[in-house]
Amino acid sequence: MTETPWLDDEEQRSWRAFGLATRLLLDRLERDLQEAAGMPPTYYELLVLLSEAPGRTMRMSELAHWTHSKPSRITHAIGKLEQAGWVRREPLASDRRGWLAVLTDEGLAALRAAAPRHVESVRAHLIDVLSPEQVSQLGDISEKLLEHLLSGSTARPSA
Amino acid sequence: MTETPWLDDEEQRSWRAFGLATRLLLDRLERDLQEAAGMPPTYYELLVLLSEAPGRTMRMSELAHWTHSKPSRITHAIGKLEQAGWVRREPLASDRRGWLAVLTDEGLAALRAAAPRHVESVRAHLIDVLSPEQVSQLGDISEKLLEHLLSGSTARPSA
DNA sequence: CCCAGATGTTTCAGTACGCAACTATTCAGC
DNA sequence: GCTGAATAGTTGCGTACTGAAACATCTGGG
C-alpha cells in the first residue's frame, strides 16, 4: 500500500476546470440535441451507428459493444426508438436468440434533419471556442486517455 | 441562416475521442467514488462544498448555485445525505423560506475517509496518464471552455 | 398597510440507466 | 445426442435527475 500524493496546484487547477467544463459542455450539447432531434445523445449515437452500418442494421449485442454500454440499456433505448418509429426490430435467422435493430426511413430522416444543428452546436461550444492547436491537443489527450481506459479497463486504483 | 461547415478530419478525430474518453473517464471515476465513498460524485461534491464553507453550512440555494444545478436536485440530494446522517438541516432565522444544510461530524469523517481513494482514482485515470505538459494544456482548454460556457451560457447555436 | 410579483423550496410525474434475476438459445465435452 | 456452461436478450426494481406546478414567504409600489 503506497501513499498517493495529493494533487499539486497545477493538477488541481486542471482537474477542477476539466470536471466542471466537461459537465457543463455535455449538459449544453445534450440540451441542444434534445431540442434539435427530440432525443438524448445516447439515442442519437445509436441512430448514427445504425445509419453507418451495412443495411442500416445491427445486432443488439453489437450496439451494446460499440456504445460501451450494458445490454439492458440497449433494450430500453431500442424500445423507445421503436415506439418513435425510428427503428424496427427483426428476428435473426442465424441465431434465434438474437435481434436486429433496423433504422427506418423515418429514423434516417430524423437523423439527417438533426445532424446540421448538432454539428453547429459542437462547433459553437467546443471546436470554435478553441484554437486549432488546442483542438489538436485535445485530440491527443483524449486518445491517450482512451488508450488507458480501454486497455487497463479492469484495473482500479488501489484495490 | 448561414451554413455551418461540417467538421474536418482533425476536428472530427478530436471531437469523437473527446466525447468517448470523457464518458468513459467519468464512468470510471464515478464507479471508484461509489466504491470508496458509497455515494455518487454529485453528492460528494456537495459534501466538499459544505466542508469548505464557514460553519460547514450552506443554504440550499447556494448549493444549487455553486453546483450549477436545479433546486429540485438539491432537495433530493440533501434528503438522501440527511438520511445517511452526513448532513443535518436547520431552518434559517433571517428568511423563513430558507434552509441551511449543515455537514455533520459523520459527514466530515466520511468525506475524509473517501478523499484519498478519490485522489488516487483521479491520478490513476487522468493526471498520471498524461504528461505534465498535457495536464497543463487540458487546464487551459478547460478554462477556455468554461469561460465560454459560463458567459454566453444563455446563447444557443442557431436559435 | 396591502397586494402583486419575485424568490426559496418542495412535490409530482416522467426519463435514462444499472443491477440482478430470469428465459431462451447455442455450444462444448463426453 | 445429452447435459451443463456460456451467451443473447428482456424484465423489474431502485437511483439520480429534470421540469413544471404548488406552496410559503418576502419585497416593493401604491
TrEMBL record, chains A, B:
Tree of life domain: Bacteria
Cited PROSITE patterns: HTH_MARR_2
SUPFAM superfamilies in UniProt: Winged helix' DNA-binding domain
Matches recorded under Gene3D superfamilies: Winged helix-like DNA-binding domain superfamily/Winged helix DNA-binding domain
HTH marR-type domain span: 11-147
Transmembrane segments: none
Pfam families, sorted: MarR
InterPro entries: HTH_MarR-typ (IPR000835), MarR/SlyA-like (IPR039422), WH-like_DNA-bd_sf (IPR036388), WH_DNA-bd_sf (IPR036390)
Protein name: MarR family transcriptional regulator
Native species: Nonomuraea antimicrobica
